[in-house]
Amino acid sequence: MGIDLKAGGRRTGHKSSSKVIKSQDPYIRLLIKLYKFLARRTESAFCETIVKRLHMSRVNQPPIGLNRLSKYMTNKDGKTAVIVGKVTDDVRMLECPKLSVCALAFTESARKRIVAAGGECITFDQLALRAPKGTNTVLLRGPKSRAALAHFGHSTSVTNEHTHDGVKPYVRSNGRKFERARGRRRSCGFKV
């Protein structure tokens, strides 16, 4: 069976998410326009990455806490941290260092702490004026912590013993009768 040439091959619609702006937020829509233009005219990988991340769904724009942010920014004086997402406060951190941060949003307390420490909170349009090619910036992301991520796996082959490491199967129950045969004992296929 050949490839359906009329449909342009098999992979249809895999890039459609960045063709149509899904967000209804006018600020995000304008930012995508701005950084798309910058990516095209400056040929900067930084701008392309920003566009790609601005297109992402809310789940794929995880927030980052101040503690993690300050940890990533140690020994990076004079650089601006760039986060396509929200910056949140971390009460476990006693002292906030001086940081220059660009993000889509800040919680009130996080903004207060950054400004009180002599740092600054800037928006993406301000960053575009300051560093259109992303010079002296550090592009960061928060940790992904969705419940569904526990079930993702199978990045290697089934013969590899690490295929099922840390992968939680979707099981109705944890009882004696549930998923205890193939894949769970040597006598039935394989064991993980």
Q: What labels describe this entry?
A:
5 helices; alpha/beta; 192 residues
Question: In a few lines, what is going on in this structure?
Answer:
This protein is of the alpha/beta class and 192 residues long.
Q: Could you describe the 3D structure shown?
A:
By secondary structure, the protein is α/β, with parallel strands linked by helices. Strands 1, 2, 3, 4 and 5 form a 5-stranded parallel sheet that branches. Helix 3 links the parallel strand 1 and strand 2. The longest helix has 17 residues. The protein is extended, with a radius of gyration of 22 Å. The relative contact order is 0.11.
Topology:
Blueprint lengths: L25 H17 L2 H10 L9 E2 H7 L7 E9 L11 E7 L1 H9 L3 E3 L1 H7 L6 E4 L52
Helix pairs in contact: 1-2
* Shape type: extended
What's the rounded overall pLDDT mean? 88
Share of residues in strands: 5-15%
- Point out poorly predicted stretches: none
Give the SSE string: HHEHEEHEHE
The residue fraction in helices comes out at: 25-40%
DSSP helical segment count: 5
- If you compute it from the alpha carbons, what radius of gyration comes out, rounded to the nearest whole angstrom? 22 Å
* Count of beta strands: 5
